[in-house]
Design brief:
- The protein is α+β, with helices and mostly antiparallel strands.
- The protein is built from two helices and five strands; from the N terminus they run H-H-E-E-E-E-E.
- A five-stranded antiparallel sheet has the order 1-2-3-4-5, covered by helices on one side.
- The two termini are about 15 Å apart.
- The chain has helices spanning about 15-35, 45-60, and strands at about 65-80, 90-100, 105-120, 120-130, 135-145.
- It is globular, with a radius of gyration of 22 Å.
- Helices cover about 25% and strands about 30% of the residues.
């Protein structure tokens, strides 16, 4: 039961390299394809997660919630944007799930759907934030969609910690590949 590994004494490093190189190239192209496959003007799960984290944190602070940390995940799916009789068009929707904690240890959740992310400035959709089970806000827009686009200055030295000791944003994109073999 389970996987078995044979440890033959006739192991050839060159043969292993020839098998490993194509697998590595395929994995690298798949990871690069994650962002390349996003349609122009479509949603990007990483951008949705980062923008939601930043704008939800700001909205919670505005509501006098003492946020210790908040991290968000987003996954894309498609849904109908018109009735079948009007034509078969679809738009992307991101399911967002954020978890966090207040400085006094209460659980924070922000959950919902995002239909639009605008250049790191705002997200549109239907999002609900709760602290310790109590609804703090329900919003169709988080952030300022008319604000100037955020800019990033190039860094030349080592990274500096975030002001106030707050954790920085971390985005994890997972690509699952299945390989068929003998």
């Amino acid at each position: 039961m389970g996987a078995q590994r044979s440890n033959h004494s006739n192991h050839h490093p060159r043969r292993t390299a020839y098998r490993t190189l194509p697998a590595l190239l395929l994995a690298a192209s798949a990871i690069g394809g994650v962002t390349a496959c996003d349609p122009v003007g479509g949603l990007n799960s990483a951008a949705v997660a980062v923008t939601t984290e930043q704008t939800a944190t700001a909205a919670l602070v505005h509501e006098h919630v003492d946020v210790k940390w908040l991290t968000c995940n987003a996954s894309l799916n498609s849904g109908p944007s018109a009735t079948p009789s009007a034509g078969a068009t679809t738009h992307q929707v991101a399911d967002v799930n954020c978890q966090g904690e207040t400085k006094d240890g209460r659980a924070i959740t922000v959950k919902g759907k995002v239909t639009q992310e605008i250049g790191g400035r705002c997200v549109k959709g239907d999002l609900t934030a709760k602290v310790a089970g109590r609804t703090v806000f329900r919003a169709s827009v988080l952030g300022n969609c008319t604000a100037p686009a955020p800019t990033t200055a190039p860094t030349t030295g080592p990274a500096t910690p975030a002001p106030g000791g707050r954790p920085t944003v971390t985005v994890t994109v997972t690509v699952t590949q299945s390989f068929q073999g003998k």
